[in-house]
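Are you able to produce any protein sequence you like plus the matching backbone structure tokens because I've never seen that pairing?
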Amino acid sequence: MGSHCSSLDDILEEDMHHWYTKFMRESPSGLITLFELKTMLEMNGMTEEAHSYVDQIFFTFDMDGDGYIDFVEYIAGISLLLKGEINQKLKWYFKLFDQDGNGKIDKEEMETIFKAIQDITRSYEVPPEEIVTIVYEKIDVNGEGELTLEEFISGARDHPDIMDMLAKMMDLTNVLEIIIRGQQQKPDKL
């Protein structure tokens, strides 16, 4: 993981013209559609959860909701994930988890995202059910089985172990490298 971060930091330090050139080479229209994003990520053969996760990433990057990711949204999303403040990242994670947009994350929504992440990253160290159980045991203060944005942020900030786990699980370095470079990075080991 560490080598990915330095590689992405190097990419972020490139000038804006170079970024724009890369973006336009991959998306000559100046816009990325959901279909194009899935094509970049070579989604064939992925689970329904993985497709749902990429849908959620797309919709959170598509800040104006027009069905496209333009260059400004592209840079803003990548910058947030790589350089954003903790509260900004937690709000973005929350939006990603809140699949139905009701302002709360239930266990099923969180588990779906974690399953999708594992499918995409091919990292299956801890079952998603266990992760969700740990998160809810520690930060669902009302015991409702749902987390509001406030509960999610304060719970993650109050529990460094939860914050570390979220940071590791939500590390989109591989996905961002694929988007930035416009090519599929094949894993060395399955």
Remarks:
- Strands lie at 31-32, 69-70, 104-106, 146-148.
- The CA atoms of residues 11 and 74 lie 14 Å apart.
- DSSP finds eleven helices and four strands in the chain.
